[in-house]
Prior knowledge:
Number of helices: 18
Number of strands: 0
Distance between the termini: 69 Å
Order of helices and strands: HHHHHHHHHHHHHHHHHH
Radius of gyration: 27 Å
Oligomer: single chain
Structural class: mainly alpha
Largest sheet: none
Helix content: over 70%
Amino acid sequence: MNTFSPSAAIVGLAVALGIGMMVGIERERRKGDGDRRAAAGLRTFAVVALAGAVAQILPVPALVPIGGALVATLAAVSHWKSRSQDPGMTTEIALFATYLVGVLCIIEPSLGAACGTGLALLLAARRRLHRFATELLSEQELHDGILLAALALIALPLIPSRPIEMLGGINPRPLASMVLLIMAIQAAGQAAVRWLGVRGGLLGAGFASGFVSSTATVASFGNRAREQPLHTGLLAGAAALSAVATWVLALAMTAALSPPAGLALLPVALAGAAGAAAVGLLPLLSSRPSAAIEAPASTRTALRPREAFTVALALALVALLVGTAQRHFGDTGLQVGIALAALVDAHAPVASLASLHAAGTLSVDQFVRGVLVAVGTNTLTRCMVALAAGGRAYALRVAAALVASLACACAVAVWLKG
């Protein structure tokens, strides 16, 4: 049997009362008035949350489930006798959930407060959620989202997460994650273009996707460039904006792991981001409306698994060749190791460098130089992926932005050092 100190009980009761009043205020505004008003409002929700907290505090066996059964029964009776024109059961289910949150506030007040606030937010966002589900989200986009969720939650955990000798020591889980990520970017990009318009959607999708994987973003937009070659410039510009996110994320990770290293990297990262943004935004801002890319039809799926598998296979072959070369010729130092790791992803080597600097085993100059090596090597990978996914014209435009970004960063680093 759980026992709670008076101070812990008071804190839990206060949190439960606050959550009950928060949810109750939201429900009070929607209960209506007159004969058709809903049964539960501010006072009811506050009392139910307190009842759950008191039931948890009192040393009476089975009091919590008995109270939960009583609240559920009263909610069911209220719904049955309701005269409201709304046939939904949101208020009744929210009443029972508030009781459970009240119980949780005694066991773990911070978690109870988080759950209660989330419940209130979910109830308050009713109109926005309904509009998203019925107007903004198309039937095909819903199907794509469910398919991606099934692949992420069912198929991905079944894939081995250990190096496999038959694959040259490659771990297949990250490769499968890359396939899933590319497909998710495909779906998100199509939805963003349809919701925000062509320019806003491309800009937002390219920049946001870069925080996850710039390589996957370049591949996804390259696939679309092959399908719509007349709009290669727009798509390449959007893909180039993922390089901006690469620098922003590298700076954020460095600042979190080693603030002094983050301060040293700040001007270099800003220069690199500015270079990528300048070249990437040029086709998006200068294109005429008549040259705008057509928004994708909402009835057509955005998922192209074959193209995602092709990019992941190319990355696996690069990693396999690099690993073989490293085993035969040995590791020639920190910079070579960083370059090898950055062939697939630049974020992990940057985080490793920041950790080494925080531990005092790496100087600021070595750290900045290592970051430039990592981003430079990954720039080569992204250029090759752009060529494989989108063709020569697309790759040239993407490479121009990536090289401009790297050149600006290197120029600032040399200037600061000198």
